[in-house]
Structures
1.
Amino acid sequence: MATLILSDICKSFQAGSRAVDSVSIEVGDGEFLALLGPSGCGKSTLLRMIAGLEVQDSGSIALDQDVLDGVPPAKRDVAMVFQNYALYPHMTVFGNMAYALKNRKVPKESIRQRVLEAAELLRLTDYLDRKPMQLSGGQRQRVAMGRALVREPRIFLFDEPLSNLDASLRATMRLEIRQLQRRLGITSVFVTHDQIEAMTMADRLVVMNQGRVEQIGTPLDVYRNPQTSFVAGFIGSPAINRLDPALIPGLPSECVEVCIRPEHLQETGEVDLGLFTIDLIEELGSETIVYGALSGGHALTIRIEGVHTKSIGDTFNVYCEAKDLLLFDHAGARLANTAS
Amino acid sequence: MNRLHRYQLADHAILILGILFLVTPLWVVFASSTYPAEYLIRHGLQVIPGDQLVETYWSVLTEKKGFTEQITAARMLLNSMILGVGFAIGKIAISMTAAYAIVYFRFPLGTFLFWVIFSTLLLPLEVRIIPSYKVVADLGLLNSYTGLIVPLIASATGTFFFRQFFRSVPEEVLEAAKLDGAGPIKFFIDILMPLSKTMMAALFIIMFVVGWNQYLWPLLMTTNDDYVTIVYGIKQVMQNLDESRIPEYNRGFALAVLALLPPIGIVLIFQKMFIKGLLESDK
């Protein structure tokens, strides 16, 4: 159980471009934090610095009272689950899970007990004698978890652990990891580029872009109140609609971009956005996604709950509530919405 | 169906011809080795085995012959075995550790040094045999197993093989091992060595056969009959010519057959791992 504090971490691989730029994050005891961002945003580098596999150029990492700077990975009391699992191919499941303990000279009987416990927890008891080659993707994933688990680390690090699994298995593992983490109460940092994973699993999200933290908050907070234009565009599927401020009268002059979520566009409301023509309809059962354009050629996506009666080529006026509009200035920072 | 049949017949004919081409000389050597030397001089090579099988091989293995008449074929086989095994194990050990250093440790000029090692492939033993002889002589290692084996165990081929293999081991495995508390030596012994098993077997066969077949090197490095290898020993049989006796062709043939057996045995034992090591790696 531990609190992780990153203060002002910087790292560059090439002179002039920062892979991680002044990142400060605090992860609370037992919290599940997701680092979310497009590939190359520095989230994996940040995780690897926490693990000690990379060394930051400046800034400090602390776990509770212990400053981790300069401490080798094995002594940090952190466990990591890798994207490709990185199991030792020549060792059995038992051997894989026991290896760290063996290196720490834990007594044999105690190793056995801890591995068996972890195997029980992860439903791996029947597979302890198998080699990783003989396991399915989900089982390998669980072995990787087990290997991290038996060490009883103060903090768990996950580096996109679900991206090698197929969609249905990914959903199951998502749930499993979350339940396990909650039950054990181990502080966890989870790196992903998949917003569904981040939204569904994390207590809090850190959205990163180009080495910088764009926003930290709970999943709902980040979704509802994106602080930057990047966050607004990155979170949410289908993607948020970006509008020309000229379409809407009465906006502050410094506003250069207006965003609105697809579910906030309706057929009635305070603000009239103009005539909309439907190009394409995606029926998903529980909801319907409608793609089309305003009369000025501006593309829009609308999300409607349930099934509806419209067809391609139909036209209607689109409205929205003023409070749902998200305003951004030229630097991409959020502006106060005077209407709300 | 008929056409398929014809194709298969042709395939088999080619295979059978190939086998005959390879095996017939060996068979003739074996069959001839079972006749007395005088018979061979009078009647030439033989295809049907004679009645001297046990006598010839027994005398070759136990009677002291050679330049100073002090060495048996059994001893020659032992010498060859020591040379072959020492050569193979030494090469594997040196090239594995060299490749480990090149791949996993960042040191100045690492890549450059690798290519320097690699370029030594352009210099076969025969080119550097005189300086090598000088070095061995200055170290006082002539007429010793150490002198026979150690100067030959640096291997560019082996280093290259292991380098390519180590580079194909996922980076994350190293990182996982680091997190699991394995230092450089533990990682090498616990992770890399077991992963390299098939590679080691493959290299062992190749290097054993190369070591076994060394001719010029033992010839130059040893003057004492105690170190004569079997491959070199075959040639000594012909020395009888100079002494105007009948050359003991049957003994020569028997030695040739004996010289063949250990490499064949090694290949048969390691064959499976050999093919696995060359074709795939179980990662």
2.
Amino acid sequence: MSRKELAERVDVNPQTIGYLERGDYAPSVELALKLAGVFKAPVEALFSLKPFAPLGRTLKELRG
Amino acid sequence: MYVRSKRYPLGKTFRPGTLRALFVLLYVLYPAGCILQIVPAPDNLERPLAVVGLLLVAASLLIFALLAGTSLQRQSQEQPSRLDERELAERNRATYVAYVILAGSVMLGLVYMMIAKDLEAGRGIHLWLPKTSDHWNGLFWGFVLVSLTLPGAVMAWRSRAPEGETNE
């Protein structure tokens, strides 16, 4: 999925997706819930105080 | 002031370095042009200096026109309902910083004018003060230019280069 497609699905500027990817912006709970909905992932997967592990591993752990 | 184009509905994006250079040029060329037009000069230099001053002011307005179509200017001037939460949060922070800078500058300007007026009346020391309508025009339009662009300039200084997201 491209940044533009994701941005359209969660109703933000495509640049904001870039900011989120780089960790330059922390999303609000509302935006985080929208993003989690798009990826069918729990919202906890989007927040962390430590650097993220690869997304595939995180999802595998969360889904048991 | 923001100019929306059909080709770039979210505004043109430039590297932060380019934007910073444009803002610096805007804030240097406009006052330089105004100063060249109002400084007393020898008779043979008065007209050439005024023309050069006018060209500098025109160049600063061209830069302003270029900035008016950028995504930063859109972010600082667009209706809130058309911005997302990150853009709004950045704009609110930048507007606060711009307000502090602008209010501080106006305050310093007023203090300078008060002191200059007192020195002129009390000790006969003549510091420059705006007197003619040209002087006030220059100050007024300079204030308009700065107040319209300062939040964008603050954001340009705070933003990092977004890879692969510029129109340059």
